[in-house]
Amino acid sequence: MKALGLLPSIDNFKVDYLSSPGDTVVIHMTPCAQSVQCPYCGSHSSRVHSHYHRTLSDIPWGSWSVRISLRIRKFFCDNSVCAHRIFSEQPLDLASRYARRTKRLENDYYLTGYLLGGRAGAKEANGHGRDVSRDTLLRCVRRASAGHHDEESLKVIGVDDWAMRRGQRYGTVLVDLENHRPVGLLPDRRSETLSSWLEKHPGIEVVTRDRAAAYAEAARIGAPNAEQVADRWHILKNMVEALERLLARHHGCIKEAGKQANAISAEAESAPIADTVKTEIGEAALLTKTEQMSQLRKDMRKARYDQAVRLYSDGVSIRQIALTLDLDRRTVRRFIKSDGFPERVIGKRRVTQFDKYREHLKKRWDNGCHNGAELYRELKAMGFPGAQSALRQYLRSWRKRLPRDHKTADDSSINGSLPPVQFSPGSASWLLLGLSFNSDERQKEIGLKFVQHLIDLSPTIQQAQMLAVRFFSIVREHKGDDLTPWIEEVARSGLVDFKSFAQGIQRDYSAVLAGITKPWSNGQTEGQVNRIKLIKRSMYGRANFDLLQARVMPLLATQ
Question: Where do the domains of the chain lie, and which CATH numbers do they carry?
């Protein structure tokens, strides 16, 4: 039974017999050693003073709970210089002093609490023959974490922040990039806290981080001999942000390029709505109440934009314009720097379950079938998985284009064409870099046409695209020697946003160069941040930072 792991293996004790009162198995064990060593002075003694019984809980056998009844002897210590005249023999291989459960059951509780937390862990444990409360599980986790001290030297670590409460409180996580495990969790992201932690680990050789100045300063103070490596993803993200800021000031070009790209695409699609429908009900009747309110708000924004531009051309300061029009100064500044009215971008069209059947629906609608129930039966026969109510919702935008008294399609039809693709500075920056992740073939085609029209409309955008693409190539292909010439070219370009980005690169040049040329990155650290989010959200309102720290940083024995 010991070979099967049912009975604990313990020296100097033997199993006398087993009893089973109720649904519990009791293992009765007695000592078998002739003499026992005194734990205080080390001398051996065979003179028994007395004995007592000690009961320990052990891991269950299926649905049966297990108890171990130990007969513990007390001995006289024959060493005259020992301060303790009487001592007890202790089964330290089985359980700690004064413990009420075996070490393997303690470890089992720790793993359950570490993986599931208190409330969920208690439910799982109580369903498998272990009667334990959530508080006991959390105590086991805290006790194991407090008794663990990792003396292993660290050489390469990653540093990143994580949100205790997003937008308000942040902490710092440190990850051993060589062994792929977290080694530190700090309650804030101040440079003083991180630098003091780094000073306690003098063997660190490489520190990977994002572009935060606080972490750069902490690494410089706490680990002055360590090489700092800026994360490549954050470097490229900063480049995209610089390009997006530049494009935000050319909103008119983006709008015009989008209009031209959609116009070319529209010519290849089906004919527009019949003129008879437009004549009978007019464009205004085609708008719902929500769309009419949206149009009204847009007209109001346009009026404020025109008024802000007019006041600025008359010499009024930005502060005064903001007070007059009740706008934020950043909004006024964006209005003035823009070369046209900044439209609000409509979100991209989502892929729906009707895309596969759209051609059939459009054909049947144009042929005069406007009965939703009939169309639903046809789609159902073709394998459509949705409900009839979903189809009615989908056809609502088609049906509102029909005349009010139109019941059949004997003299009109609906186009059913897709809405135009909208472009923002953010989406335009991705398209200029060739990073579009959209799988829709129509939107890909329009995107390519949009990029061509955009660079034709603005030489500045064309120059920015060339510089951004070159920088992406430098980072992705690890061309560290090309970084300095690129910075010099940006300085001659006259692009303000790119100059600001290049100046940030120069201030952090050694870390950025290391990020481009070295194999280390913060990818593992970002993954640990995601893991912290999962653990943290399962503990909302029921745990403190010390328990989060214990669950994030596992013991080496459990790796």
Answer: 1-101 (no CATH), 156-231+523-558 (3.30.420.10), 234-248+422-517 (no CATH), 276-399 (no CATH)
